[in-house]
Amino acid sequence: MPLLDLPLEELRTYRPDLAAPEDFDDFWAKTLAEARTAGESAAPAEYRTVAGSPLRTVDAYDVRFPGWGGQPVAAWLLLPRRATEPLPAVITYIGYSGGRGLHTENLLWSAAGYAHLIVDSRGQGHDTPDPDPVPSPQYVGGFMTRGIGDPRHHYYRRLMADCVRALDALRAHPAVDPERIVVQGASQGGGLALAVAGLAGDAVAAALVDVPFLSHMRRGAEMATRGPYPEIVHYLGVHHRTDPEQVFRTLGYFDGVHFAPRAAAPALFSVGLMDPSCPPSTVFAAYNRYAAERKDITVWEFGDHGGGRGSQPEEQLRWLDGAGLGAGDAAAG
């Protein structure tokens, strides 16, 4: 992937004038109120010990919590064994087309002393279906244009509501310190972490936002050479009479550039300057609008959509220590 976006010095000041939909805040206030009301009449969060787990230093739980519409969303909860409680916690949201996977696949955060909730993505992971309330034959493959005609029916309304409800559930867990919960993810997961930081206020202690998807989506559609943004291009190419402005207006309710000014939690972003899926200008568009007093971005000059790959977690752990959110000796109890 060649370097096709803006030079780094321009990216650092790239701040396009992008207006959120006029009812953006009202839309999300009603969405979350609706999701929480539905959750009150649904089964409460359930944590079942993973039988026969081969892990020796981590206690693993198979989780179901009420998400959008009170529908059960799957997750794993990993707790450092014999830890001193309450623990700081990390919630991980998953990249596009992925799910929570196996409970043995993602052990970094529990090894570092954090409670760790790994959230399945409805309709993408294997364990959380997506009962679409208004199925539409109009979308093209993938999730970007599901419900594109109306933000109330768009796929990402349901998924982002799930992500906030995961935070609600974890805050109530007795092993977790509700004042020290970090949201984290890469690609789609980074976009979801950014959305939760903008929606959940001081319930989020920090955000780790890696190579975020779902940000400055119109530019993503115009520039990205690899998915998922090309789904939008394909949709508009097939549905010639569809007004592009209407499409991007719907997507505006789920765009990180509109969540970023509403976020107050300290944040560490990362970006790859040779990213063909999430062009760096789309990342900087959100980062430069992010409203927290403390924010940093790790720039991987020759990074593609993998960003810093295995080097980024060490950056994150050190950054959390510096932000006063390290796990310290929690896992040594």
TrEMBL record:
InterPro entries, per database record: AB_hydrolase_fold, AXE1_dom, CE7
Catalytic residues in the record: S187, D275, H305
Domain spans labelled Acetyl xylan esterase: 1-321
Xref: SUPFAM superfamilies: alpha/beta-Hydrolases
Any matching Pfam family: AXE1
Any single GO BP term: polysaccharide metabolic process
Keywords assigned: Hydrolase
Alphabetized GO MF terms: carboxylic ester hydrolase activity
Entry keyword annotation includes Cytoplasm: no
Residues reported in the UniProt entry to bind substrate: Y96
Protein name according to UniProt: Alpha/beta fold hydrolase
Lineage, uppermost ranks: Bacteria, Bacillati, Actinomycetota, Actinomycetes, Kitasatosporales
